[in-house]
Specification:
alpha+beta, Alpha-Beta Plaits, 2 domains, five-stranded mixed beta sheet, 10 helices, elongated, diguanylate cyclase
């Protein structure tokens, strides 16, 4: 959803990802140059190939990093550079005349790092570039084919295999860990009311439904408290909406303090709150309601010290049948019964 996305945050994340991949390019190109250099020596190739190898191993990674840093969309620029990596890799495979060990190693890792960085779509485009680079170079060189790999070239291929392979695994692990952490954070945000940092209505109903289903199968008591601030509009009109928000935060603090393991305080919306009480009979739920009222009468934070407010509370026990919405409606009915009988009190739904 674009209206929840900050372009600056996206740019910063893109720069970070591009930078990590950029440093991997220095490592991969540097180590990948070793088996190529071995084959250049074996074939006594022209000095121009040494120049091309040095440009690919040193100059190209530096240029790619510069391009991604200056790009408006660093991640997209980095993906384009990775496609160029595959193009160059295909050309070097052709130069090595399909020498079995380094050619297979280059092809496998050039596909693997694209999958790790951008998934199947990037890997497909990069693989196509690899095939184009290989075909163009192989045809230009006259279709050379020397699959046997010397022992020295095999040995010089090992650092590329182990160091770059392990580095790629670490990068993928860090990316997966970051994604998992972000997913947990998104899940937490989807369940939380941001103003008071309590569960929101949707998550409360989900948990209440679980409690009802568990109770139907295994027995057990549970109660639902529903409360709202008496004359909350008067507080907003007299003290301002900022003060009203502080009152809501004060209620949230009290609800968290009184909650036991397994309980769930939540904000339903506006000035309405609820508390799901596990393993509590109605008499115990009434005690909790009175504690909430008592705590809210005590002096709180400086922001609410000059504001007199109270809450009315409705209590409903879990029924053997019905949904969480029915349970909440029953507590809501008890709440309005408390409102009609003078406010600043608690009422139990029979």
């Amino acid at each position: 959803m674009p209206f929840f996305t900050d372009s600056t945050e996206v740019a910063v994340e893109g720069v970070g990802a591009a930078r990590r991949i950029g440093w991997m390019r220095f490592v991969g190109n540097g180590l990948g140059a070793l088996p190529i250099a071995s084959i250049i020596l074996e074939r006594q190739a022209d000095a121009a190939l040494w120049v091309l190898l040095l440009l690919n191993a040193l100059a190209w990674p530096a240029l790619a990093m510069l391009l991604t840093r200056r790009a408006r969309e660093p991640a997209a620029a980095q993906f384009r550079c990775m496609i160029v990596d595959s193009l160059f890799g295909g050309a070097w495979i052709a130069f090595m005349a399909l020498s079995t060990v380094p050619s297979a190693l280059f092809a496998a890792l050039l596909v693997a790092d694209k999958i790790a960085a951008g998934g199947i779509r990037l890997a497909t485009r990069a693989t196509l570039a690899l095939v184009v680079g290989f075909a163009a170079t192989w045809l230009t060189l006259g279709l050379p084919y020397q699959p046997i790999t010397s022992q020295r070239t095999v040995v010089l291929s090992l650092p590329f295999l182990f160091v770059y392979g392990i580095g790629l695994s670490v990068l993928s692990w860090r990316l997966a860990r970051r994604v998992k952490s972000q997913n947990r954070q998104l899940q937490r945000l989807s369940r939380m009311d941001p103003l008071v940092e309590l569960a929101n209505r949707g998550f409360l109903i989900q948990r209440a439904q679980q409690v009802l289903q568990t109770g139907q199968h295994h027995g057990g008591d549970a109660c639902l408290l529903m409360l709202d601030v008496d004359d909350f509009k008067r507080i907003n009109d007299s003290h301002g909406h900022r003060a009203g928000d502080e009152v809501l935060r004060r209620i949230a603090i009290v609800l968290r303090q009184l909650a036991q393991p397994g309980d769930m305080p939540a904000r339903l919306g506006g000035d309405e709150f609820a508390v799901l009480l596990r393993q509590r009979i109605p008499a115990e739920a009434m005690d909790v309601a009175e504690q909430i009222r008592h705590y809210l009468q005590e002096p709180g934070a400086p922001e609410t010290a000059d504001i007199q407010f109270s809450v009315s509370i409705g209590i409903a026990a879990a029924a053997g049948t019905g949904s969480a919405e029915d349970w909440l409606a029953k507590a809501d009915k008890a709440l309005y019964h408390a409102k009609r009988h003078g406010k600043n009190t608690a009422s139990y739904a029979e």
